[in-house]
Amino acid sequence: MNSVSVIIPALNEEEPIGGVVGECLATKTPREVIVVDNGSDDRTGERARAAGARVISEARRGYGRACLAGVFSLSPECDVVVFLDGDGSDCPEFMNQLVDPIIAGTHDFVIGSRTRGQRERGSMNLQQIFSGRIAGLILRLLYDVRYTDMCPLRAIRRSALESLGMCEQTYGWNLEMQMKAARAGLRVLEIPVNHRRRAGGESKVSGTLRGTFVAGARIVTTLLRIAAEKSPNSGS
Ligand SMILES: Nc1nc2c(ncn2[C@@H]2O[C@H](COP(=O)(O)OP(=O)(O)OP(=O)(O)O)[C@@H](O)[C@H]2O)c(=O)[nH]1
Ligand SMILES: [Mg+2]
User: Fold this and answer.
1) What is the tens place of the pLDDT at every residue in 195-207?
2) Using one digit for the tens of pLDDT, what is the confidence trace for 149-182?
3) Are 27 and 34 in contact (CB under 8 A)?
4) Which atom of ligand 1 is nearest to the CA of 87?
5) Which stretches of 28-173 are assigned E, i.e. beta strand?
6) Ligand 2 (ion): which residues have CB within 5 A?
């Protein structure tokens, strides 16, 4: 019997977070939903707990830092980990499609693609679509893998995740996982997923110029850093 855990990084998401947790639990797939409250100054933690999540706090900001804190707090039984954002933009009803190939043993890492799925108007801007495609192209050249997005909605076998040595503390986290998964030769699958506008609250990244630049810079730095690293398995 496989045990699925969901990790949701959340910073000041008191409006959408209860709905996100509820939608995850409604799929009846996860055994636990962990919300990592990343230093919120609103009632994100309280709302998440009321909706049925286990809430842990990571006071220091950073998307990757929040995801890592979630990984460290996984229950011992967990063997498949699902990640998604806390703003209601990812669609948890795709969770089974992400998790099933891992449980079936055919894949280790299954990632959603918003650019191949149906997007609510305004849910992704041009920079996000373009950067996902460009990253996909570069990773295809580097590792011969096919990605068309850096979608936060994804599932990974826990043992595989723990072998990757994830360390990115910023918005580079999602790309780091994709690169390291491809480099390590994990069996990767990308499936189309739908995407919505955030379900309330404020955008911290794509909706602001500063957020877009900061996240963009982190993503480029991550790409360069990991591309320049020697693969731990290369033997050279
Ligand atoms: N900016 C930021 N977001 C964090 C942090 N920790 C967790 N998050 C969460 O990261 C997710 C992505 O942030 P969003 O503000 O939705 O960024 P976005 O998806 O580019 O912007 P929207 O278009 O508004 O959805 C949300 O669930 C945030 O709550 C952090 O330290 N900083
Ligand atoms: Mg968002």
Assistant:
1) 999 999 888 887 7
2) 999 999 999 999 999 999 999 999 999 999 999 9
3) no
4) 27
5) 30-37, 54-57, 80-83, 109-113, 154-157
6) 85, 87, 89
Q: 14 in ligand 1 pocket by Cβ < 6 Å? A: no
* Neighbouring C-beta atoms of residue 53, cutoff 10 Å: 28
Sign of CA dihedral 209, 207, 122, 9: positive
Cross-strand partners of 83? 7, 154
Q: How far is the CA of 123 from the centre of ligand 2 (A)?
A: 8
- Tokens standing for 215? 């996240």
Q: State if residue 204 touches ligand 1 by the CB under 6 angstroms criterion.
A: yes
Token pair in block for residue 1: 């019997």
What interhelical angle do 126-143 and 209-228 show, nearest 10? 0
Pair of tokens at residue 24:
């995850």
